[in-house]
Specification:
Blueprint: E1 2-4, E2 7-14, H1 19-29, H2 37-46, E3 57-65, H3 66-72, E4 79-81, E5 85-86, E6 90-92, E7 99-100, H4 101-108, H5 112-120, E8 123-126, E9 132-135, E10 137-153, E11 158-161, E12 166-168, E13 174-176, E14 185-189, H6 199-208, H7 213-220, H8 224-233, H9 255-270, H10 294-301, H11 318-325, E15 341-345, E16 358-362, H12 363-371, E17 379-400, E18 406-409, E19 412-415, E20 428-430, E21 440-441, H13 454-475, H14 480-483, E22 492-500, H15 501-511, H16 521-537, H17 547-551
Parallel strand pairs: 1-20
Antiparallel strand pairs: 1-21, 2-3, 3-22, 4-22, 5-17, 6-7, 8-9, 10-11, 10-17, 12-13, 14-17, 15-16, 18-19
Length: about 550
């Protein structure tokens, strides 16, 4: 076990020469006067005209514990680099059940009803064998404004996330976006397309050859639903495009369509069509409003059950047979609900009633299986076809319930906010400022200073026990993301923060000077020396901030 003190590093400063901010300020004040930028900016800061210093920024890397990062990301104007995704990403998708991560976060901050609703909702996680299982979440985090990148896959899935967000890849490992390239494989919640046709060919057939969905389906021996899904993924689908008989969509026939219909029926009679009740005699049935023959009446009176009935066709078929095969299943096999259950055929072939092909689900999951992201019960490999910069957006992340710290979002299997690391070489913990002990390697209680207080020894022993528990779970076959659930808040983590100078002033006022209340000791431990270093690197901007100035 390694114990270290928290630290920071200023990575970059944009605007340290003050010239850009001076130019912006003189533009605001219509001032053409010449002078030192420092004096000009100092006067504007003293007058609380702080918008001009938003043109400068500073980027800092922190090596701290989890509690520090949770406090830090509350400053929403800043840009953070941790694993997170854009707020418009769907963790549930459907006609009327669309839920984004931002929706979850807003409900978490809302009324008691909203908070309770969040506690009852089920998301999706991936287990060790790649099965999609229902799972609840602990909390939704707002991670501030971040640079996000859009990933698009061959099967048509897309998501926007930061470079540090982790995706499930080969060998059951997670890789960050910055480690992935076009052509790499990651896993999505879906099934391979049954359309045996490439993108270029389907574009040619649909847009140039003017074939409709049924004609393409027959030509390629693929289900119509797969052809439709592929056209939607290519964003070229248009309702009723290339349909050969568009008059069938008219709610009311026109005079022209009536003439056409009469000609069609007349031609059918010429070709041998007969009236449906030609030659039938007997009395009229009030229940069926049709003529019943003597033969039919006799046949109905002699009807018996099962295979002794003259209408016996071999027993239940299609969905009826599937329902019988699954009659002992009383819960949805995806979300565990008990109401509105029906049987779904995975390959969408109602005649294939093998037990491997049918699954009993509720009506909500049945809808998602056909139209939403959850179109399968297992994850499948997919290929990245593009990675594009998408701008700066609000980003969020979710902490899932143990032991599965992952979730399905926009169809992708991604890791949640807890860092994914394999600590097989030893765990590193951050020493809190109120614990007096030396930095370095500690392998047992005997190496800990004997003159420490009992409370400090208790903290050390709990960290040591957490490391031992983590190692034990790894040796028992748990994956790192499962085993790290036993690690405490003192676990070392890293975060990079970029903010403009005005936001940094607010951070220092709240986290170093305590203008809005006494800051957390771990915040003061880092922010006070960071403020002093910022003063030396960026004169003027932070000179008026200080412990002594605040006390005055």
């Amino acid at each position: 076990m390694l114990l270290i003190k928290p630290s920071f590093e200023i990575l970059a400063i944009n605007g340290a020469d003050l010239l850009l901010m001076e130019k912006a300020g003189r533009t605001c004040y219509k001032s053409e006067a010449k002078g030192e930028p420092a004096k000009f900016l100092a006067s504007k800061i003293k007058a609380k005209h702080l918008t001009i210093i938003e043109h400068g920024s500073m980027t800092v890397r922190f090596v701290v514990d989890r509690g520090f990062t949770h406090e830090l990301v509350r400053h929403r104007m800043a840009v953070y680099s941790q694993e997170c995704i854009s707020g418009d990403s769907f963790i549930r998708y459907g006609n009327k059940k669309e839920i984004t991560i931002k929706d979850l976060y807003n409900r978490q901050q809302g009324s008691c009803y909203d908070k309770t609703h969040n506690k009852t909702i089920y998301l999706r996680s991936v287990n060790e064998t790649g099965d999609i299982i229902p799972n609840k979440f602990n909390e939704v985090f707002f991670k501030g404004k971040n640079e996000v990148f859009k990933i698009t896959t061959k099967l048509g899935y897309s998501i926007k996330c930061t470079k540090n967000h982790r995706f499930l890849t080969d060998n059951n490992t997670y890789k960050t976006l910055k480690e992935l390239n076009i052509g790499d494989t990651l896993f999505v919640n879906g099934r391979p397309s049954l359309a045996t046709i490439d993108d270029i060919t389907i574009r040619q057939m649909y847009l140039v050859d003017k074939l409709n969905l049924k004609e393409i389906s027959e030509a390629t021996n693929s289900p119509i639903s797969s052809i439709s899904r592929k056209l939607h993924q290519l964003e070229i689908f248009k309702p009723h495009l290339n349909d050969k008989n568009k008059e069938k969509y008219n709610k009311n026939h026109t005079e022209k369509s009536y003439i056409k219909m009469r000609k069609t029926i007349s031609q059918q009679y010429i070709d041998g069509r007969e009236v449906w009740n030609k030659g039938i005699t007997g009395e009229k049935s009030h229940s069926f409003n049709r003529i019943i023959t003597d033969q039919e009446r006799e046949k109905a009176s002699n009807a018996k059950l099962g295979d002794k009935n003259p209408n016996w066709s071999g027993g239940p078929k299609k969905h009826n047979k599937a329902q019988i095969l699954k009659e002992n299943i009383t819960n949805c096999e995806l979300c565990k609900r008990t109401k509105g259950l029906c049987v779904h055929h995975k390959d969408q072939n109602p005649n294939n009633n093998s037990m491997e092909n049918i699954i009993k689900v509720c009506s909500k999951c049945h809808h998602l299986l056909h139209w939403g992201w959850h179109v399968g019960t297992k994850i499948i490999p997919d290929t990245i076809v593009s990675i594009e910069y998408s701008g700066i957006e609000d980003t969020y992340d979710i902490e899932m319930k143990e032991p599965y710290h992952n979730y399905i979002v926009n169809g992708f299997a991604v890791h949640n906010s807890t860092r994914y690391c394999n600590y097989s070489g030893g765990v590193t913990f951050i020493i809190p400022p109120w614990v007096l002990c030396p930095e370095g390697e500690h392998v047992s209680v005997e190496t800990f200073p004997l003159d420490c207080q009992e409370a400090e020894q208790t903290w050390f022993e709990s960290c040591l026990q957490a490391e031992k528990s983590y190692s034990f779970l790894i040796h028992q076959g748990w994956s790192p993301q499962q085993a790290r659930t036993v690690l405490p808040n003192s676990l070392k983590t890293e975060i990079v923060m970029t903010a403009n100078f005005r936001e940094w002033r607010l951070v220092f006022e709240q986290r170093a000077l305590g203008i809005t209340g006494k800051p957390h000791p771990q915040m003061s431990e880092i922010m006070i020396p960071l403020l002093e270093e910022a003063k030396t690197k960026i004169p003027v901007i932070f000179d008026d901030l200080g412990i002594n100035n605040n006390e005055k």
